[in-house]
Amino acid sequence: MAIDGHYYSVPYTLIKKEVEVRITHNTIECFYRGNRIASHRRSDQKGRHTTVAAHMPESHRQAGEWSPERLITWAAKTGPATEKLIRTVLGARNIHSRPTGLAWASSGWVRATARHAWKLPASVP
To answer: How many domains would you assign to the chain?
Structure first.
């Protein structure tokens, strides 16, 4: 959910559900059917995210536990092309700006792409 360009988490079970929001100078409170489901300190950082781990599905929480070092170690065990791909992904994007950023890097998309890393053009560093 976005308020003034900043994104706040709500429990994933409420995706696509309509929630009510109470906004004060310091707080964002989210309600579903009259029950408070989330409360966040208000932020003025546009494009950033405030995420509570408990709002994520278990699989996302586990993926978020992957540090860059852990990803690189996993990639190296898979093969040199996979390690090169993961190092490129980690270096090319500011994926550390979100608590779930490393979840993206360790997602099935990267794993599936890594299996075909040998197809990368020579221009990839």
So the answer is: 2
Interhelix angle 68-78/80-92, rounded to 10 degrees, is: 150
Express each pLDDT in 73-84 by its tens digit: 888 998 899 888
Task: Decide the pairing of beta strands 27-32 and 2-3.
Answer: unpaired
Predicted pLDDT of residue 75: 87
Q: Give start and end residues of each alpha helix (H) in the chain.
A: 58-63, 68-78, 80-92, 101-105, 108-115
In a domain, 125, yes or no: no
Q: How far is it, in rounded angstroms, from Cα 83 to Cα 69?
A: 11
Among 36, 42, 37, smallest CA distance to 2 is for: 42
Is pLDDT above 60 for 33?
Answer: yes
Same domain, yes or no, for 69 and 49? no
Q: Which domain holds residue 74?
A: 63-119
Domain presence at residue 76: yes
Long-range pairs of 56-60 with CB within 8 A, sequence gap ≥ 24: 56/9, 56/12, 56/100, 57/12, 60/12, 60/100, 60/103
